[in-house]
Design brief:
Layout (H helix, E strand, L loop, with lengths): L1 E6 L4 H16 L7 E6 L14 H9 L3 H17 L15 H12 L3 H13 L8 H10 L4 H8 L5 H13 L7 E4 L3 E4 L4 H10 L8 E3 L8 E2 L4 E2 L1
Helix pairs in contact: 1-9, 2-3, 4-5, 4-6, 6-7
Length: 234
């Protein structure tokens, strides 16, 4: 069974949703048959690689709210992350363009290291407050998961995988992705947002059935939280 996951490394609900899916997989008796593939979906392709503006100021401008309200919104997400065993540090997070992070992740998938690198990149941004647009940092991560640092730097200095990012984004748009995370289970079911673990487990069981129609499962609760180009809704 293959699960395609459209996500971005700076989307908080993508990391939260990843953890919820992993918890469901631990309860799924066929988990060893499951292949996870993370697909690229940039929430802000126009973002600068180096950006000194604080996240709270960016959110305040984007949503027309005060800085205090932006921090309060982020604090609420931090609480949700904590429930999944994740430590988010929005106070010190470093804003950046995620294209290079996506490119090095695609390179890692070619070498069977994609899942390991994806986890490192998400933790780096949300927990460790590292600059995931910095080539040295990205190549160090590549080396940490067993890849050649020099080869990783060469990829980052080129335009390799830019077309793959665009293809992922377009494919996502074609199947109805309007926000991330977005999970497609073996081309049978789609789950939109960071749904509760029991929802993921239910879909894992159902996907065994022969169904051709793609069904999008949504929720009116905050547990289906997701990020779109316009906002992060919890």
């Amino acid at each position: 069974m293959r699960i395609d996951i459209w996500s971005d490394f700076v989307c908080p609900f993508c990391y939260i949703g990843k953890r919820k899916l992993e918890k469901a997989l631990k309860q799924f008796k066929h988990r060893e048959e499951v292949e996870l593939v993370f697909r690229s979906y940039q929430l802000d392709p126009t973002a600068k690689r180096d950006n000194d503006e604080h996240l709270y100021d960016v959110l305040a401008k984007k949503y027309g709210m005060t800085r205090e309200k932006a921090k309060e919104m982020s604090d609420q997400i931090t609480v949700q992350a904590k429930e999944e065993g994740l430590d988010f540090n929005f106070d010190t997070s470093i804003r950046t363009n995620t294209a290079d992070a996506h490119r090095i992740a695609h390179f890692a998938y070619e070498q069977g290291k994609g899942l390991e690198l994806t986890e490192l990149l998400m933790k780096a941004y949300f927990t460790d407050s590292l600059h995931i647009g910095d080539h040295e940092i990205l190549s160090d991560f590549a080396q940490e998961v067993g890849m050649d640092k020099g080869e990783a730097l060469n990829v980052l200095r080129s335009n390799k995988f830019i077309d793959v990012i665009k293809q992922d984004q377009q494919e996502g748009t074609n199947i109805g992705v309007q926000g991330v995370p977005f999970f497609v289970f073996d081309h049978k079911y789609a789950v939109s947002g960071a749904q509760p673990t029991h929802v993921f487990l239910e879909v894992l069981e159902k996907v065994k059935e022969e169904q051709s129609e793609l069904t999008i499962i949504e929720s009116n609760t905050s547990e289906g939280a997701h990020c779109s180009n316009e906002s992060c809704d919890s």
